[in-house]
Automatic annotation (TrEMBL), chain A:
Keyword line: Cell membrane, Lipoprotein, Membrane, Methylation, Prenylation, Transducer
Protein name: (African queen) hypothetical protein
Annotated localization: Cell membrane
SMART domains, per database record: G_gamma (SM01224), GGL (SM00224)
Domain (G protein gamma): residue spans on this chain: 4-70
Pfam families cross-referenced by the UniProt entry: G-gamma (PF00631)
Membrane topology term: Lipid-anchor
Taxonomy, superkingdom: Eukaryota
TrEMBL record, chain B:
Keywords assigned by UniProt, alphabetized: Coiled coil, Repeat, Transducer, WD repeat
Single GO biological process annotation from the record: signal transduction
Keyword Transmembrane helix: no
Keyword Nuclease in record: no
WD repeat extents: 62-103, 150-191, 192-235, 236-277, 322-354
Species of the source: Danaus chrysippus
UniProt family annotation: Belongs to the WD repeat G protein beta family.
Protein known as: (African queen) hypothetical protein
Coiled coil: 12-46
Highest rank taxon of the organism: Eukaryota
C-alpha cells in the first residue's frame, strides 16, 4: 500500500511538472531566431574573440614584446 | 498560471488517470511546439554576410596542478582564475603573469567544482567530499584556516555558483538535486528536485533579477528553474546522452548545452524548443564544457578529443579548433571582459587563448 501511495505521489509530481510546462506561453521560432540574430549584431563589435582587438595594446594577453626600450 | 490552481490533489486522481493525463500533456506540448516551428536558425543565418573568424592563439600556460584539472572560474577582476583538481588542491592564479598566487588544500581529491564570489573576495569549491566549502581570500590568515562548510549533499558536488551575491550559493549534485544555501548559516534555502539522475551542470540567467537558472544532468535533460518557487518550468530532452554543461546565451533568451552524445545544442526559451545543433559526423567524443563569446556568435566547446572547438552559433559550422592540450578538455571559460578563453584539461594544465 505504501508503495502504491509513493508511486501515486511520484506520478502526481511528474504530471504537475508537465502541466506547468504545457501552460507556458511560446513565441514562433521565426521571432526567437530573429531576436538571437539581432542581439549578436548589436554586440559583435564588442566581441574581441570574434572581430579581433582594435590594437594589440588593448589585448591584456598579448605576447610581451621581445624588444624593450632601455 | 492556470495550471497552478489545478495541482491540489483531488480524491478521484488515480495512477491511471495521471498516466493518461501525462500522455495527453506530452502530446499537447509537442503539438504546440510544432505549430510554432515556422523557421530555422540555419536558414535565417544563410542570408547573413560571412565573417572571417580570427584564429585564437595560445597566450599563457598555467602549470602547477599535480593531476587532472576539473574546473576553473574567472575572478570578476578579469585577472585571476581559480582552478580545482583531482589532486585535491585549489589554485588561485594570476592569469596575466601565469603565476600561482595561492594553493589551498581541500579535504578530498577530485575537486569537481569551484567558483569565484561576485565580490572576488571568496571562492567556493567541492567535489567527492559531497560538500561545498567557502574560503575567504585576502586578509592576514591563510584561507584554509577561515574556511566554512556551506552545503552538504548526499553524493558528489558537480557544480556550484554564487547567484549574483556573496551571501548565497547554488549547488548541483550527483544525488540528483540542486540546492540554494545561505553562506553565512549554511542553511538550506531551497531544494530543486526534478532530475531523474546526477545533475552535472548549472548556469545562472544573465539578468539582473537572477531569479532563474538552468541545469543539465545524466538523465539527458536540460531543465530551467524558477529559483523562488523551486519548480522546474521548462524541460528540454533532445540530447541522446548525459548533459555535461549548460550555459545561457548572453541575451538570456536561449541556452547552449554540451553532451556526451558529442553534440552541443541551442534551446530557445521563448520558442520552448531546440533551435540549433552543433555536431559533425567526424566528431565522436563527448563535450564536457561550453561557453559563449561576448556577442553570443561563437560557442566554445571543450571536448574529450583533447581539443576545444569554436562554432559559429548561427550557421552551426565549426570555425576554429584549439589544439595543444594532451588530454580531455574539461572546462572552457570566457574571461569576464571577453578578451580571452581559458581551457582546463586532464593534462594538468590550464591554457589561455586570445
Amino acid at each position: 500500500m505504501d508503495m502504491m501511495v509513493s508511486t501515486l505521489q511520484q506520478q502526481r509530481a511528474v504530471t504537475e511538472q508537465l502541466r506547468r510546462e504545457a501552460a507556458i506561453r511560446r513565441v514562433p521560432v521565426s521571432v526567437a531566431v530573429a531576436d538571437i540574430v539581432r542581439y549578436i549584431n548589436e554586440h559583435d563589435q564588442e566581441d574581441c574573440l570574434l572581430v579581433g582587438f582594435s590594437s594589440q595594446k588593448v589585448n591584456p594577453f598579448r605576447e610581451k614584446s621581445s624588444c624593450t626600450v632601455l | 498560471m492556470a495550471a497552478d490552481t489545478a495541482v491540489a490533489p483531488s480524491p478521484e486522481e488515480t495512477l491511471e488517470s495521471l498516466l493518461r493525463e501525462v500522455e495527453a500533456l506530452k502530446q499537447k506540448l509537442e503539438e504546440e511546439r510544432q505549430k510554432l516551428n515556422d523557421a530555422s536558425l540555419s536558414f535565417v543565418a544563410e542570408r547573413l554576410e560571412t565573417i572571417n573568424f580570427p584564429t585564437l592563439k595560445l597566450r599563457r600556460m598555467l602549470k602547477g596542478h599535480q593531476a587532472k584539472v576539473l574546473c576553473a572560474d574567472w575572478s570578476p577582476d578579469k585577472r585571476h582564475i581559480v582552478s580545482s583538481s583531482q589532486d585535491g588542491k585549489l589554485i588561485i592564479w594570476d592569469a596575466f603573469t601565469a603565476t600561482k598566487e595561492l594553493t589551498i588544500p581541500m579535504p578530498s581529491t577530485w575537486v569537481m567544482a569551484c567558483a569565484y564570489a561576485p565580490s572576488g573576495n571568496m571562492v567556493a569549491a567541492g567535489g567527492l567530499d559531497n560538500k561545498v566549502t567557502v574560503f575567504p581570500l585576502g586578509g592576514e590568515e591563510e584561507p584554509a584556516a577561515r574556511k566554512r562548510t556551506v552545503a552538504t549533499h548526499t553524493s558528489y558536488m558537480s557544480a556550484c555558483l554564487f547567484p549574483n551575491t556573496d551571501r548565497q550559493l547554488l549547488t548541483a549534485s550527483g544525488d540528483g538535486t540542486c540546492a540554494l544555501w545561505d553562506v553565512e548559516s549554511g542553511q538550506l534555502l531551497q531544494s530543486f528536485q526534478a532530475h531523474a539522475a546526477d545533475v552535472m551542470a548549472l548556469d545562472l540567467a544573465p539578468t539582473d533579477m537572477g531569479d532563474a537558472f538552468v541545469s543539465g544532468g545524466c538523465d539527458r535533460a536540460v531543465l530551467v528553474w524558477d529559483m523562488r518557487s523551486g519548480h522546474a518550468v521548462q524541460a528540454f530532452d533532445t540530447h541522446l546522452s548525459d548533459v555535461n554543461s549548460v550555459r545561457y546565451h548572453p541575451s538570456g533568451d536561449s541556452v547552449a548545452s554540451g553532451s556526451d552524445d558529442s553534440s552541443c545544442r541551442l534551446f530557445d526559451l521563448r520558442a520552448d524548443r531546440e533551435v540549433a545543433r552543433y555536431a559533425k559526423d567526424s566528431l565522436l567524443f563527448g563535450v564536457n564544457s561550453v561557453d559563449w563569446s561576448v556577442s553570443g556568435r561563437l560557442l566554445f566547446a571543450g571536448c574529450s578529443d583533447y581539443t576545444a572547438s569554436a562554432w559559429d552559433a548561427l550557421r552551426a559550422v565549426r570555425v576554429g579548433t584549439l589544439t595543444g592540450h594532451e588530454h580531455r578538455v574539461t572546462r572552457v571559460a570566457l574571461s569576464p571582459d571577453g578578451t580571452a578563453l581559458a581551457t582546463a584539461s586532464w593534462d594538468s594544465t590550464l591554457r589561455l587563448w586570445a
